[in-house]
Write a structure and sequence with these properties.
This protein has about 110 residues and is an all-alpha fold. The protein folds into two domains: about 15-45, no CATH class; about 50-110, DNA polymerase, domain 1, CATH 1.10.150. About 65% of the residues lie in helices and about 0% in strands. The N and C termini lie far apart (about 40 Å).
């Protein structure tokens, strides 16, 4: 794409993607890829945007924001699911931290 550059790169929640695409679809027609994305985030979104933001704030005390956003989108149910998210990380995360993360996630699972 000539003349286009990335101005900012930050992770966002699936619920935020859904909100953005729904607002965009009111004014414009969505492309095929945008329709697929909207369908996917509508089907698999597990937490509201407000709760996701609160969850990430709590998780940022333990892990980086990019991981916290990914956890808020996936909402892992046990340690094995959570460990899979950190397999490629260079710095290992302690088991106690993983358990703390799961406790925090479980608080928001009861929606």
């Amino acid at each position: 794409m000539i003349g286009k550059k990335t101005l900012r790169n930050e992770p966002i929640f699936a619920s935020k993607v859904k909100q953005i695409l729904e607002e965009f679809s009111k004014k414009y027609e969505l492309s095929y890829e945008q329709k697929l994305t909207l369908n996917h985030v509508t089907k698999f979104n597990k937490i509201s945007l407000e709760n996701a933001e609160e969850l990430v704030e709590k998780l940022e005390d333990i892990i980086k924001r990019k991981h916290a956003v990914r956890i808020a989108d996936i909402m892992p149910e046990d340690l094995s699911d959570l460990r899979l998210m950190f397999v490629k990380e260079k710095v290992p995360i302690k088991k106690k931290d993983l358990e703390d993360i799961l406790k925090i996630v479980d608080e928001y699972r009861a929606e």
